[in-house]
Design goal:
globular, 7 strands, Rossmann fold, 7-stranded parallel β-sheet, 11 helices
Amino acid sequence: MTDTSVDGCGGRSVVVTGATGGIGAATAVRLAGLGWDVIGTARSQAKADVLVAAAAGEGLTLRTVVLDVADPVSCQEVMARIEEMTSGGVWAVVNNAGVPQAGSVEDVSDEQARHLLEVNLLGAMRICRLALPGMRRRGGGRIVNVSSGLGRVPWPLGGWYSASKHALSAITHCLRVETAHAGVRVSLVEPGAFATAMLDRAVTDLNNTDPAGDRAGYDRSRTLFTAVNQRVPGPEPVAKVIATALSARRPKARYTVGLDARFLIPLHTMTPLWLSDRIKHAVTGLPRTAPAAPTTAVEVAA
């Protein structure tokens, strides 16, 4: 990468949401190893304790808070406590918390969709909004929002997830322009597929859904998600890029991580929609046309 880095983090504070597994845990531990004052958020104290123990196993220390990014009251109370813990607020935010919610658009309920948007989109912006006053007072800061390659490559049976990440991408670009004058640098990270619990949760979503439409698409997608999760690398490459976005003197607006994402995003952009649709039908096993209507005895007689 061509960006030059600042001279260390100087013990600056950073809050990492969704820090108890996958990309979040790898990021929290990596940043702690680089000298950051890491505050990782967890949904429960038990999960927070596991993260602290994992860091301690590598000779590192970090702090944790119990936070539900989907709960506005929890966010306000915890971010106020973090401001006290850091004597004025964190210097950086990594919005990593996310949920998949796999299933066809028709099969995902309003309640499920609202929860997805609360976690993946509204929660991330809520944390930004609460952290920005401290960054303004300090005259600078960093925000890294973790999106997904599927935010630019919408995938059947993951429509709500793709929609939430596409929206996160759009609002992150607006936030970058709006906060530049305050010295706040905002970056978007778009990971491809990495071995985390996210794909396992997507498989669980598919297993727990009684589809209104075709079952074959669900079965093929479940097999695909499972196979991908067994073949892709762990989340450490994403953690490394997040660390770069936080420390680079001139961070990029967008970082795409993973061979699959770097290949599929431009391919999807260049491919005509009719061809893209055919590829997605073929990969997911979703039928392209309605089955032929059975011939009735009346029609034969006619």
